Structures are given as C-alpha cells and as structure tokens.
User: What shape does this take?
Amino acid sequence: MIHAYAAHTPGGRLEPFAYDPGDLPPGAVEVQVEYCGICHSDLSMLNNEWGISQYPLVPGHEVVGIVCAVGEQVTTLQVGQRVGLGWFSHSCLHCEWCLSGEHNLCQTAEATIVGRYGGFADRVRAHPEWLVPLPTTLDAAKAGPLFCGGITVFHPIVQFDIKPTARVGVVGIGGLGHLALQFLHAWGCDVTAFSSHPDKEEEAKALGADHFVNSRDPQALRAVANSLDFILSTVNADLDWGIYINALRPKGRLHFVGVVPQAIAAFAFPLIAGQKSLSGSPLGSPATIGKMLDFAARHGIEPVTELFPLAQVNEAMAHLAAGQARYRVVLHHGST
Assistant: This one.
C-alpha cells in the first residue's frame, strides 16, 4: 500500500489516504519520497481551477526521492539512485515532439497529478524519461522546486538562446522570480527585477538583480523604456503589459511563464514597429532539466525554502495560499 494525503472534494482538506498501486508496470519506476515541494499548481488542482482535477486528488509534483523499485524493462535507472520528478511523469516517446527531444510538448504526455496520484505520499510512480538523477552536490531538501519552478524559468533561457550580454527583466520576485534572478545572474546577464514590493529590493539584489524597479512607480517604469532585450513575467496577475512592451528594445520579447488570469491586452503597433514578440512556455524537456541541475550545482543555485513535515500538509498549503511562502514550501518525511 502507498500512504498519501488526498482531498476528496474541490478545496477539501487533505486527509490520510492509502491505495494499492498494483504490480509495477515493466516500464515504470517507483520512488521512495524524501521531499516534495508545494507549487501553486497544487493549489489550483486542489481547487479544480482548471477543470481537470479528479478526486481523490493526491497533489505533489516537485518530488525528490530514492528509486526503490524498477520495472523489468527499465535500464536507465537503478535502485538506490536519488532522482527528481516534476509536472510530467510519462511521454509517448514516439511523436514528433518526443523524437525531437521536446518531451514537454508531447500532446499525450501524462501529468504527475492529473488523473493519477502524486508526491504527497511515501512513494510515487513515474516512467524513467521524466525521472532525472540529482547531482550529489545539490541539497536534496531544497532541490524539489527546481523540477517545476526552476525548469519553468530556466527553459526560456535555453529556448531563446539568451546571451550573457543580454539585458533581462524579471517581473515578480516570488517562487519563480527568485530562481530566475539567480539563473540569469549566473548566466552573465544584466538583470532588472520588477516588483510591487519596494522592501524586496535588497533581497532581489542579493539574489542576483543588478537593478530594481518599483512597478508601482510610474516614473521608475518610464525610466526603463527601450532598455531590455528580454522580459520574463512570472506573476499570476493582470498588469499593464503595454508598459513592459515599451521597456523592450527592438526585437525584444515579453515571455510569460506565470498564468495571468485575464486576456493579455496589447496594441499591435509597438510590436510591429519594434519587431517585438509575446510568447509563453511550459516546463522544459528532461534533457533541459538535466542541464539546469548541472548549472545549478555548478553555480550554487538553490531555491529559498521553508520546510514542513508531511503531516502538516494542510498548514503548509494554507501558508502558500495566504501568500506567505518565502519562497518555496517543501514537505519532508520525518520528525524534524
């Protein structure tokens, strides 16, 4: 039996839940969960905000743990390896996207907590293509959020071939943004942090920002017009996007990884005149996750985390829902 925490109704309390996963399929892997980060997507799934949740729902898709069993067809992982698991748990491996190495774009990809049970548990199952070995120099207690939040902000750097000479803006200094600052600083970019909280300036600069803009200050926003090559928006809020488009240099790009609630309003003329672009992206491929982990290990990049015992999962979820997380919440097994 696998012992987990599940909600039985939308927005319901997570209660102890045991289930029999059956025999391990020949192509699957079972992982003993050590740590599991809590992502805002877990809250969205708990509340069925996207209309795809199935109950009982076991959230958790930022898993770090030890391989405890492998199917007979699995040759790439061994019992005893420490691995991480993110949003995806399986891809088809034969569509054009998988064959080109972009498993994250597979149209039939299986999500770790959609229609199956996730990592708020003592064990979780997945397929080996999405279980990425953890470098030994990374702290297992902090690494879980890299498999969702980390790859979400690292993937665009690789996807758009951001140069070390680029001037890059990061909108929002939270769970995603604080990782983006670290990655972009280590990449060599000149980094501007945009935040509606002026008290975050000192910490943003400590995380890697070269400049800080109070996004509630119109004069400060006007001062950065035509200055940035790339802006990464990590917020789940509706902003005046025309201001950020205006902050881009010609051929600049405003890229979204935060899910804004409303339609993105933008005038076509500034995009046409400056040959500017709007875009978005999901998580990266397993290969890109591997690159991100190596880069993080090399440069000492890790999320700022708060630890909660798994038994306090409801308190941890409430902490995140209240906007009090600094900056990622991680559940752990054990008494400490």
In short: The two ends are 24 Å apart (CA to CA). The chain has a mean pLDDT of 96. The first strand starts at residue 2 and ends at 6. DSSP finds eleven helices and 17 strands in the chain.
